[in-house]
Amino acid sequence: MAYQSQKEANSVMLVQMQDMKERYETEANDRERDLKLLRAENDRLQDFVTQSASLTPEAKMEKMASMEIQRLTGENLDLRDRLDKMDEDNRKLKKAVAQLAQRSQLQADSTAQISGDSLAEVRYKERSWLGMLEFDRADLQSLVAELVLNPRVEQFNDFLPSTLPAFLLFMCIRYTDYRNDESLVKSLMASATKAIKRVVKGFITNCLRQYSGEKQYSDQNTHKQNEQCLMNFDLSDYINVFHDIAFWVYESILQFIRNELSTVVVPAIVDNEGIPSISDSRPSGMRGRGASQPAKKSSPDTVVRLMTGYLRTLNARGVPEDVARLIFRSMSYYISATSLNNLLLRKELCHWSRGMQIRYNLSHVEEFLRESRLSPPSSQTQELLEPIIQASQLLQARKTDSDINDICLMYNKLTTQQIVKILSSYTPQNEYEEKIPQSFIQKVQDHLKKHRSKEEPTIMMNVDYVFPLSIPFVHSPLKLEEILIPECINLTFVKKI
Question: What is the rounded CA–CA span in Å between residue 158 and residue 19?
Fold first, then answer.
């Protein structure tokens, strides 16, 4: 019986590893395509810089070669890091397969030894599991602590679902329902509620819905799953409690993320000079202003590292994809709003070269959002960066009377006041570039008012805006009677029945 169970577990793990391999191959192809797009974008920027710079041919060639070497070096380092990570994942998978094969062999040898030493074979009758976990009231606090407060999340990442503790907790709830012990179920739910407030856990609501017996949640259940619905207790009130906790946790997560990003977004997106060849191309009247500001070490890579850490944590905690996507939508909006507001308040930044720097810095965040595959398509999240992207493009665009219609059409994510503010603050790059006449700004403003009569007169974006949370119901095909408690979870005091 144990050997057969182990074989089935091995088969499931092998299928999961095959899926992981295919996913890695797909991600590798997507990354290769994104790299080609970035190369094309960088080539365009380099050509543009080369044509605009008033340098001798020798100096141009030397600067272009230097920039190309720097770009290729950065790409090589990124690719090497990705390759090292994939090699490390491959080694982990091979090690896990070897351990499983060794364990299976040991169990097979043990079974063969027992059969050889016995004249008669002892056969176990097939047992029908009820999908419950029996526990004593005295072990209640230890049970909740192990499943909610102290989960070994890193041990769930590779082969075990991060929602496993929620299913094990629900199996305990089913045991209290099976016994019709109202006092015990109240104690269990109260302890679980207090514990869940301290950590990010929300999947117990899916279990309570799926096994509540309500038709809207049980349509996809198997006959066996419908038999396992709660019989004696209606715990729908606890679903509302857990939802309230989830909303509170969601807002707390976003507040924590905003607090961390608030110190790095402006230095990394607005102030960072990622293109060295134009780092000294600020307007002559503005060059002394940046010197008085404290040096900032944040770069777009700093923002990307933070976002990568957030995504890794959300995945490790088993946060549903819809909720993770919503968090990153709010995150992208905050980056865009903070950067644009800062740009609008700093006239010394409103010039052509700063527009190029901001656009280059934002490309790192866009690349991360594409590679993260947060949403199909991820453009829904990337679109929230459009206000600051369009602001950077407006700084680089031509500004003649023939361009008025294009300006009003292309920069549709900016309000009329924002466009007028950027044009009014624009500073010529050098003495050869003419200042934008007030008559041109007035024409743009009149054209925008004519075509955007219903637009609200706003100039600063609301950085505190949060996308409303909607908790989705995710049906699980997992069978409670087939769940095995892994060794990494210390539940020796419970009994599967």
Answer: 12
DSSP helix/strand/coil, 23: helix
pLDDT in tens, 173-213: 888 888 888 888 888 888 888 877 666 555 677 788 888 88
State how far the alpha carbon of 441 is from the alpha carbons of 186, 277, 408, 460, in Å.
Answer: 68, 30, 12, 19
Distances 84 to 29, 78, 193 between C-alpha atoms, Å: 17, 10, 41
**Greatest mean pLDDT among 115-119, 338-342, 364-368:** 338-342
- Across the chain, mean pLDDT equals 79
* DSSP secondary structure, 202-260, as one string: -THHHHHHHTS--HHHHTT--HHHHHTS-SS---HHHHHHHHHHHHHHHHHHHHHHHHH
- At 421, the pLDDT band (50, 70, 90 cuts) reads very high
The size of the chain, in residues, is 497
Q: What is the C-alpha separation between 469 and 324, in angstroms, rounded?
A: 11
DSSP label at 349?
A: G
Angle 375-378-379 from CA coordinates, rounded to 5°: 140
Q: Exposure of 381 by Cβ count < 10 A (0-12 exposed, 13-18 middle, 19+ buried)?
A: buried
Asked whether the bond before 165 is cis by omega within 30 degrees of 0, the reply is no
pTM reported for the whole predicted model: 0.63
Angle of helix 164-179 relative to helix 182-196, nearest 10 degrees, comes to 160
Indicate the residue type of 243. Answer: H
Strand partners, 133: 496
